[in-house]
Design brief:
By secondary structure, this protein is mainly β. The protein is elongated. The protein has a single domain, classed as Sandwich (Jelly Rolls), CATH 2.60.120. It has helices spanning 8-11, 80-84, and strands at residues 23-33, 37-40, 48-58, 65-73, 87-88, 103-106, 110-113, 118-121, 126-131, 137-149. Strands 1, 3, 7, 8 and 10 form a five-stranded antiparallel beta sheet that branches. Strands 2, 4, 5, 6 and 9 form a five-stranded antiparallel beta sheet that branches.
């Protein structure tokens, strides 16, 4: 059955297995020095997608503090102002402030948030990461999202159970 015209709220009520294959999209930035650094995913995200998991990872640097921001964008930012102008991937997640909020966590650990099942309209943009190292520190941080596309068709038997 064709469900391409269904509203997203109705599609999100379907069982998990209707959403098809899941993919990992990740960004990683090794940064040296006191200024911010950026990375952008190689591939564009689907127009409308579902985020199932968020994975944050870092080697932590010397003091163990990790600061990063995640957003949706078309190009790799070259300044903090350009990053601030991008649309946040997760609204309200992180320290309160301008643009995409700063996500703060203790390094040398992996953080995973599972079972998000969060629909996102990306307009075909890509995942952007900003790594904000403390002064004179070197560390690497990574962020990944597990995504799937929105189904366009489902078996008829799902509707008549």
């Amino acid at each position: 059955m064709n469900i391409s015209q269904w509203p997203i709220s109705k599609i999100m009520q379907l069982p998990d297995h209707c959403f098809g294959r899941r993919h990992l999209v990740s960004v990683t930035k090794l940064h040296i020095g006191a200024s911010a650094g950026w990375d952008i995913s190689e591939l564009a995200l689907p127009e409308i997608m579902v985020i199932w998991e968020l994975i944050l990872s870092s080697d932590g640097g010397e003091n163990g503090l990790v600061l990063m921001r995640l957003a949706l964008g078309d190009q790799l930012p070259t300044s903090v102002a350009q990053m601030t102008a991008l649309e946040p991937l997760f609204n309200g997640f992180g320290l309160q402030g301008l643009g995409p909020r700063t996500i703060r966590f203790t390094g040398r650990r992996d953080y995973t948030i599972r079972n998000l099942r969060m629909p996102v309209r990306t307009s075909g943009r890509r995942l952007v990461l900003e790594n904000i190292p403390p002064p004179a520190e070197t560390y690497m941080c990574s962020a990944g999202i597990v995504i799937s596309s929105i189904p366009k068709e489902i078996p008829d038997c799902l509707l008549y159970q």
